[in-house]
Amino acid sequence: MYNLAGEYECKVDAKGRLRLPSGLLKQLGTEHARFTINRGFENHLMMYPQDVWEKKTNEINSLNIYVKKNRQAVRYFYRGATNVSCDSADRILIPKMLAKYAGLSKDVILFAYNEQIEIWDRKEYEQMLADEEPDQFSDLAEEVFGRKSDDGE
Known about the structure:
By secondary structure, this protein is α+β, with helices and mostly antiparallel strands. The chain has one domain (4-122): Transcriptional regulator MraZ domain (Chemotaxis protein chec). Helix content is 37%, strand content 28%. It has helices at 22-28, 50-61, 68-78, 96-102, 122-132, 137-145; strands at 4-11, 17-19, 34-39, 45-49, 82-85, 91-93, 107-114, 116-121. The strands form 2 sheets. Strands 1-7-8-4-3-5 form a 6-stranded antiparallel beta sheet. Strands 2-6 form a two-stranded antiparallel sheet. The radius of gyration is 17 Å and the shape is globular.
């Protein structure tokens, strides 16, 4: 179980390699240097530690593939999914097809939360925040969390 958190500015080198920040590696632990990267819901990538990926695939594999929407979800979920490992310099190689999908340039943002890491092109990330971030986070928090009562109802 992970409780990842943080935004990290990173660079992708000319060969498509991304060095994972030491702060993120500390949260993951040194034994977790294997990941799976796939497409995110928006134009970004999702990166999962290998054990989290296995949980996600168990969930998606439980869908009834005789239902068309389920087949479509399974295909999209697995499309481009690639296993990657850190090299001796704590770098991962981002597959070209996935980098193209996410429009990754040299400057990227890793946004880590819960058990996954989003990989965004820096400009796309900033644009997403400008478009989607609420003017008043307190209003959003009240709408989303305000329905919870102190007694668990």
